[in-house]
Design brief:
Helix content is 36%, strand content 25%. By secondary structure, it is of the alpha/beta class. The protein has a domain of 237 residues: Vaccinia Virus protein VP39 (Rossmann fold, 3-Layer(aba) Sandwich). The strands form three sheets. Strands 2, 3, 4, 5, 10, 14, 15, 16 and 17 form a nine-stranded mixed beta sheet that branches. Strands 1, 6, 7, 8 and 9 form a five-stranded antiparallel beta sheet that branches. The chain binds S-adenosyl-L-homocysteine. S-adenosyl-L-homocysteine binds next to helix 4.
Length: 360
C-alpha cells in the first residue's frame, strides 16, 4: 500500500537524492496535508496508541500536584507560565488544572501556554481546555514568556525527528531514506560527520547505530534558561534511557508495530529519548540548575501517592470501572508495563526544593 506522502517523497528523492531519517520523520509526522499528527487525533482505543494521561486521570493529577508543590516551594510566583509541550488531546493539562486548583492561588497566577505543531490537535485542545482557561499556543518553546515556568512534556521528545549514524571502522555513515524498485528504502550515505559522534567511538563497535535528535537539545536549553532566569520546574516524561545506543526508530498503527517506510503519514513514528543528551543541553545552557537523576515512572508515581489515590477512587467504583482502575494503576506503574521503560527527568533551580517524586 502506498500513501499520498509516499508519492511526494519518491518524487523528492528522485529530484534531489536520498533524505535523512530526520527529514523522513518530519514529513511523516508533520507534513501540513498528509502528516500523521497534522491530520488526525491518534489517541485512545479507537486510535493508534494510548498515552499515560489517556489511561488514567491519576497521572495528570499527580503531575499537577507535583508542579503546584514546586510552585509553592518557590514562593508562589505570580504570574507564571504553566506550559505543556505536545499536549495531544489536552487531557493531561485538564487533569493538572483540576488537581492544582485545590492549591490556593495557583489557578489565578497561571497563564496557560501550549507548544503544539498540529492544527488538528490545537482544535481538540481548545475544545478541552478553552472553557476553563484562556490558552496561548506556540509553534516552538522559544517564544515561551520571560517569567517563571512550570512545565510538563509527556511523550513529546520521542516524536522529534532523529538522525541515525552507523559506525564503519573509525568513521560514520548516515542512514538515509532513498528509493529502490519504486518504494522507499533504507540505505547508507557516504562518510558523515557530526560533532557529537567523535565521543561515541569509545562506547560503540563497528556496525552500531547512534541516534542524534537535533531539535531536542535546543528545546531543553530554552526551558533551562527560562527556569534559571525566573524560577520554575520542568518534568520531562518519556520512554528511553541514559546514553542511548542502537536503532530505536519504531512505527505504530492501531496499537501494533508497523513497517517504518510503507505508510508514511498513517503510522506514528517515534524514537527512544536520550535523557543524557537532554540533561547535558540543559546543564550547558544553565549550569546553576539542578537536573534530577532519571527516575522510573513507576517509582515517581508511587512516591507521589498513586496507590493512595487509586484506593480513594476505588471506594466509589465497582464492576468494570473498578477493574479498569486497577488495570490503569498497573499499566502506569508496573515494571512489565510503563513503570520502568518510561522515565522522568526534572529540572529546577539548585537553590529550590527537589521536585516531589524524583530521585535525588
Ligand atoms: N502529551 C500528550 C501527547 C503526546 S503525542 C499525551 O501524553 O497524550 C505528541 C504530541 O506532540 C502531539 O500533540 C503532537 O502533535 C505534538 N508534536 C509532535 N511534534 C511536535 C513538534 N515538533 N512541535 C510541537 N508539537 C509537536
Amino acid at each position: 500500500m502506498t500513501t499520498p506522502l509516499t508519492e511526494i517523497l519518491l518524487r523528492r528523492i528522485a529530484a534531489a537524492g536520498p533524505i535523512t531519517v530526520a527529514d523522513y520523520m518530519a514529513e511523516a509526522l508533520l507534513h501540513p496535508e498528509h502528516g500523521y499528527y497534522a491530520t488526525r487525533d491518534p489517541f485512545g482505543a479507537a486510535g493508534d496508541f494510548t498515552t499515560a494521561p489517556e489511561i488514567s486521570q491519576m497521572f495528570g493529577e499527580l503531575i499537577g500536584l507535583a508542579l503546584a508543590q514546586a510552585w509553592r516551594d518557590q514562593g508562589r510566583p505570580a504570574p507564571f507560565t504553566l506550559a505543556e509541550l505536545g499536549p495531544g488531546r489536552g487531557t493531561l493539562m485538564a487533569d493538572i488544572l483540576r488537581a492544582a486548583a485545590r492549591v490556593p492561588g495557583f489557578t489565578e497566577a497561571a497563564e496557560l501556554h501550549l507548544v503544539e505543531a498540529s492544527p488538528t490537535l490545537r482544535a481538540v485542545q481548545a475544545d478541552r481546555l478553552g472553557p476553563a482557561a484562556p490558552v496561548l499556543w506556540h509553534d516552538s518553546a522559544d517564544t515561551l514568556p520571560e517569567q517563571p515556568l512550570f512545565l510538563v512534556a509527556n511523550e513529546f521528545f520521542d516524536a522529534l525527528p532523529i538522525r541515525q549514524f552507523q559506525r564503519e571502522g573509525a568513521g560514520w555513515h548516515e542512514r538515509m531514506v532513498g528509493a529502490a524498485n519504486g518504494a522507499l528504502s533504507f540505505g547508507l550515505g557516504g562518510p558523515a560527520d557530526h560533532p557529537d559522534l567523535q565521543a561515541r567511538l569509545t562506547d560503540t563497535r563497528p556496525g552500531d547505530i547512534v541516534e542524534i535528535c537535533p531539535a531536542a537539545g535546543p528545546i531543553a536549553a530554552v526551558l533551562a534558561m527560562r527556569i534559571a532566569a525566573h524560577g520554575g520546574a520542568a518534568l520531562i516524561v518519556d520512554y528511553g534511557g541514559w546514553h542511548s545506543l542502537g536503532d530505536t526508530l519504531q512505527a505504530v498503527r492501531a496499537h501494533a508495530p508497523a513497517d517504518l517506510l510503507t505508510q508514511p503519514g498513517q503510522a506514528d513514528l517515534t524514537a527512544h529519548v536520550d535523557f543524557e543528551a537532554l540533561a547535558r543541553a540543559a546543564k550547558t545552557a544553565a549550569p546553576t540548575l539542578h537536573i534530577s537523576p532519571m527516575t522510573p515512572q513507576g517509582v515517581f508515581l508511587e512516591r507521589l501517592g498513586i496507590t493512595t489515590r487509586a484506593q480513594a477512587l476505588a471506594g466509589r467504583l465497582s464492576g468494570a470501572a473498578l477493574t479498569d482502575l486497577v488495570g490503569a494503576h498497573r499499566r502506569l506503574t508496573h515494571a512489565d508495563e510503563m513503570g520502568t521503560v518510561f522515565k522522568v527527568l526534572g529540572v529546577a533551580p539548585s537553590a529550590a526544593a527537589t521536585i516531589a517524586g524524583l530521585s535525588v
